[in-house]
Specification:
The complex is a heterodimer. Chain A contains twelve helices and no strands. By secondary structure, chain A is mostly helical. In chain A, helix 8 (about 140-165) packs parallel to helix 12 and helix 10 (about 215-225) runs antiparallel to helix 12 (about 245-270). Chain B has two domains: about 1-215, P-loop containing nucleotide triphosphate hydrolases (Rossmann fold), CATH 3.40.50.300; about 230-290, Alpha-Beta Plaits. Chain B is elongated, with a radius of gyration of 24 Å. Chain B is α/β, with parallel strands linked by helices. Classes of the chains: A mainly alpha, B alpha/beta.
Chain lengths: ~280, ~325
Amino acid sequence: MKINPIYWQEARVSSRSFRLPLIIFLCNTILSLAALLNMYSMVTQAKVTAEIQYSSFLNLYILVACIEFVMILLIVPALTAGSISGERERQTLNLLLTTRMTPMDIVVGKLMTGLSTMILLIISSFPILALVFIYGGVTIKDIVLLLMSFISAAVLSGSIGICCSSMFRKSTIATVVSYCVMAALVLGTAAAVRFGGSSGFSFLVWLLLLNPGVPFGAAMGEQLGNVRRISVLQTWTGSSLQRLTAGDWLWLGIIMQLLLAGACLWAAVNQVNPRRKRRWKY
Amino acid sequence: MLKVEGLKKMYGRMAALDGLCMCVNAGALYGFVGPNGAGKTTTIKILTGLLLPDSGSVIVDGIDAVKEPGKVTEKIGYVPDFFGVYDNLKVWEYMELFSACGGLYGLNARKRSWDLLEQVGLGEKSDYYVDGLSRGMKQRLCLARALIHNPPILVMDEPTSGLDPGTRYEFKEILKELREQGKTVVISSHILSELSEVCTDIGIVEQGKMVLEGSINDILNQINVRSPLLITVCRNKEQALNLLRSHPYVETITIRQNDIMVGFTGEQEDEAVLLKQLVEAGVMVCGFVRERGSLESVFMQIINHEEGMVLISEN
């Protein structure tokens, strides 16, 4: 199988640099500290009260998963927002475009680079998530569902990063705009539903399908049998959601976010293509 | 090999190319010359598929570059006016990357990379990081990169700008070698003396139009006819001047110590007759030569500079 040359080159360079091991070390240190502190507090409590709160172990799982999810949303745009603009800054993009590589190959290579770093990070954090298996309550299927929500969030944030990178000539501007777009998707849609939904604009709830936090929340809610989040949505927006379960939110959210990611990648390919008619330039 | 017709490109209201025509024969080393902003880089970008023209046609080795840009990339190797290198890659890794981008993998890619690095004199540097290379080495690496997919045409945009004379000389030698290998090379440069040494054909572009194109020898011969005759006289200078003043083909006479510079409009045969007349008039002629025109003088004439300025700079 022929590997995408862009991905191969980036993988070679990143495996040589200090950045990748540092990211993995820092992320896993944060996750481990959070998990160990949580376990320490449980054990201390058990020593005092002489009873074990098994729900605390699920809280540990929720805590570690939430931290990991937030890290994905924060790290992936940083990894991808400089990808195309960095090529422009190095003046290597035109060289790549004069080879057999198509704009699609270049964009996919860049996305693969960002995602592979993220997947490495997710896999390396497995042992910390697996702490919860010691006490039970979470199955492999639950972990797979969680992983899917992680991956869809990573694909979406990576695609947004690449799209911004293709639109802006400077990596710093592309990074800032990527974070703004991610904030608009995560916090903006939630705020719109919270305030718009209670003001009678219940249709705004569908905006949540674009929010990467929703599949994650739905996955967690389904695993923990906690439907509180969904009922909160019903409170905000009326009864139109009564037939939607947490599972529906999970799958609908993942599908919509992958579609949005596809649209971002298509826009990026279009931006990278030197032969398209340019209407505006940054 | 490469034929451009009626190429037009507008940037906003400014016409970068205004019906440019160009014809490069197979195996030619074509010098593409013009002042800044004449449209050279725009033309090169269109040739390499990096820009879409507003109108006109570009045929590269039988392929329409405007309609089938993907196929043209296989025919053209592009060396831009910047290095375009990844500093954190080693030289052989850089070559391997572009081999893969050109569809060449495995042993074939390594052999081809090695051969090219040897050809450009970087064989011993293959394990060095690109950022450790000098400017000249980086430029040679770019040349090797452009040749990795063995294209029949090499397009170079100001490849020797910023290089020291030694490196430029080496670069020129590589170009000659490539020509011997049958490559067609289009090279844009401002260093006209260098182009005149290596190029077989030349095209001068100004304000988006081709103003002069053809074999460099033909063009220099044409300009030679307009160049002055340089007559060195050992004795009887006055007699020589009297004869020249009354000669129908003589337009101007400039005296420079023992040399007489004559604006002479006659052909080669008329030059021979003039020499004979001078000798018969008892003038001792030590030297009689038509000053050779240079690419600079052609260029300056075309872009409306005074020829006198060119001659002064030549001396």
